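Hey, I'm writing a tutorial for new members on how sequence and structure tokens pair up, and I'd like a real worked example in the thread rather than a made-up one. If someone can provide the structure for the chain below, I'll link this post from the tutorial.
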Amino acid sequence: MTDTNPATTYTDGGVNTNDSTQRTLESMAAERYSRRQAMFRGAGATTMAFMGTGLLAACGDDDDNAPGYGGVTVSVGDNAATSTGRVVTLTGSASGTLGTTAPSWNQTGGPAVALTGTGNTVSFIAPAVSTVTDLVFTYTAVSAYGESASGTTTIRVSPAVLGFSAVAHSLADVVVVPEGYSVTVMTRLGDPLAAGVAAYKNDGTDTDYDKRIGDHHDALSWFGLSASGGVDAANSTRGLLVQNHENITQKYLHAAAPSTGARNEAEVIKEMNCHGVSVTEYNDAGGRKWSYKQDSTFNRRITPFTEMSFHGPAAGSAMLRTQYSPDGTKGRGTINNCANGMTGWNTYLTCEENYAGYFRRDASDDALRTTRELMSLRRNGVTSRSGSYSWSSAATTNTAITRWNATISSATATSADDYRYEMNQMGWVVEIDPYNPASTPRKRTALGRFGHEGAFVRIAADQKVGFYMGDDSGGEYLYKFVSNATWAAADANAADRLAIGDKYMDNGTLYVARFDADGTGQWLPLVFGQVPPRPASGTNYPEPYVFADQADICVNTRFAADAVGATPMDRPEWTTGNPMTGEIYLTLTNNSGRTPATTNAANPRAYQNNPGTGSRNNPNGHIVRIRETGDNTDAKTFAWDIYMFGVDSTDYPSNPNVNVSGLTPANDFSSPDGAFFSRSSNVGGQVNPLLWIETDDGAMTDRTNCMLLAALPGHVGDGGAVTIDNGGVTQNSIVGAKATAANLRRFLVGPVDCEITGIDTTPDGRTMFVGIQHPGDSGTIAAPGGHWPYTQDGSTPAETTRPRSALVAITKNDGGVIGL
């Protein structure tokens, strides 16, 4: 999501501080072990466990270690404790006359873990556990005469805790992470993606953006790549990083100020190519030392020029027909790619969000449109007389550029003569096969057309596939699409991945959510014959909108959601799902249009951002979560609550009507945007998965730059009912358990002016990738607002150094799982 920025003429529509009351690890261990069985070294043992790597082992029993003639003696140290996700190192030693067989460690009790290393020293990642669990390891050495000696050590593993100290607020022009973590800047705007493409000069003279990393890094996903170039979903050392490029910071792309009036065609092509999606091969040289492969055959840019095909109910509809595609089955490109989804069959979903603002409609167009068309254009926001960046004003016959003018060319022309319906070709979920650079992306019309923020895909055995989607605009809705087909596990390994997409994404039911005041909700089907006409309302919608068919519902999904009585939400952004419970989380970033009179149970606050100043609205946003009835994707009902409310806790330290979740300066945030649960392929996503929350804030940026937080959330229903007083107007709601230092902490703060957006990890959870979007965009070419990423290493760049959107890799110095 990118907010309004007049300057670009673009409009979007260390130490553990766990304060929990759980018993200490030492007290639990003292009850379980005798002095002879274990020695816990007080704070020292606990600190080693909490901080990650330590020399963790236990004294062997004397009789077990008694040497025979020519035997050996082993020593293995002390027992110790740790928690899920920490690196544990076991060290043993042997003395005497050793045989040819090297000493070794083996696990002899508890949940199995993978031991790394050989001989005297091995290590492992503490597994995910729901209760305190003991792991037993045996160190054995064999003498030259065949006699053996062994010793054991017990490692007590506790459930996951947040394993870092909260990062403080920051206004610095760097990415700040906790002590014990490192940041590596990876692919940046303009980095070359093909052999022979020159290094980026960053002075506005660069071209060939169809072969370079795009701008405004946004949602991203990691796809593991095998040594032979095929799918290896578990690979954490080689993979394809697929990332959206939502928008541009126009002024930094050109040598001088962008052309005005009739735009320069070369400038327009450059700007267009900086949008879209990139596919980039990444490799770990060992120890999480990352680089990208410039000349990989998998590297690819998907831009507004890339051919697309339409699938689902609206494919071939008259409402998608253009001069380029008279039959309405294909189109060119994708635009304003914001959040995303990752399917169970190894494809990527990119979502077209604020597409509407790119289109121009001249004043003459109104008279040539039907009332139905005008209502649709207004409801979907296609009302600009110039279009974002005025691309269509370029003096060119290139229809890939002129198509941004959606004006009907004449009273006698047909849709085959112009681009009157080009805007209907945007606003979709687009499926991409990252493993096949020659494949044509497919726009999945059954999932509806609106300001798509994301499309989280939930797959459960013996269930239909569910897709959860937000429409990022004030007063819009949460949607769900459910496939007709039940998930077949074999499809996860299919060779024709886009054909599997046809199976699960072209036929099914589209729903929109209604949130009821009692903490329940209903999924309302958007099916032709079941959706009534959308009633007339005001001068913009002077007559009822009667749907002609399912294609019409897919194209005009907002109208259909209006018609069935869906709940207007505070800018529905990303969706993500808890991989253990199936609960769905929806970020609601903020809503300047929310008032006390228009609050509802799921959007219950309207307050002043600065106490005592300004109007009441929802400047800091909140996060809603739902749990499907029966935990089934095909459920028609659900339970819901508000997981967390954003707030500036300095302004509102204790006001229960605003700081509803009890945030403090260690975990407060504003405008939640990106959301991601750690992958279930690593311990961060198991038992009690980590939730990561990214922000895109304008309300709290006087105090801190945008941020990334880590949470250990509970479950729907772990809180209760509240009544919020919005200045004399009360609103009842259902909220989750309050935030504490144990369950929510700030993990990262970004550089000046940025939005933190885009997040994924390698399957092992030991590298995290995060997008830093539009840093330093508040300044001018001569004096940019910031200079990141050139400041990340502590350098002081020249005052004219232009900032660049970029992706960062975050690793834990001890090699452990991120966040734990």
